[in-house]
Amino acid sequence: MFDNKILLNLYGLSLSTNYEVFIPVNEKVGNITKLLNTTMFDSINLDKNNTFVNINTGFIYKNNDLIRNTDMKNNSKIMLI
Predict the structure, then answer these.
(1) Nearest 5°: phi and psi at 80?
(2) What does the CA dihedral 13, 59, 65, 69 come to, rounded to 10 degrees?
């Protein structure tokens, strides 16, 4: 139904909370992490150099990778560290 976005189960390590977020598949991982840093962590002073890590595999995603070209799919468990 939604070919242009995926639903991620996102765990924010710094806040120890889970979120479910839709992200566009045509964006780079680095752009998404910047956006999430601004929206989720702007109210507290945390390190802004976060990245995505797959909870199940431990794979660390590169900031230049397109979401479409990664193994992220609907309901993937991703940690923002």
Answers:
(1) -100, 105
(2) -120
Could you report the per-residue pLDDT of 46-71, keeping only the tens digit for each? 556 788 999 999 999 999 999 999 99
Topology of the domain comprising 5-80: Ubiquitin-like (UB roll) (3.10.20)
Residues 6+ apart with CB under 8 A from 53: 59, 60, 61, 78, 79, 80, 81
- How many angstroms separate the CA atoms of 12 and 81, rounded? 7
CA distance 72 to 68: 8
Judged on CB neighbours under 10 Å (0-12, 13-18, 19+), 14 is middle
Token pair 């929206």 is found at 39
List, for residues 7-23, the tens digit of each pLDDT value.
Answer: 999 998 777 889 999 99
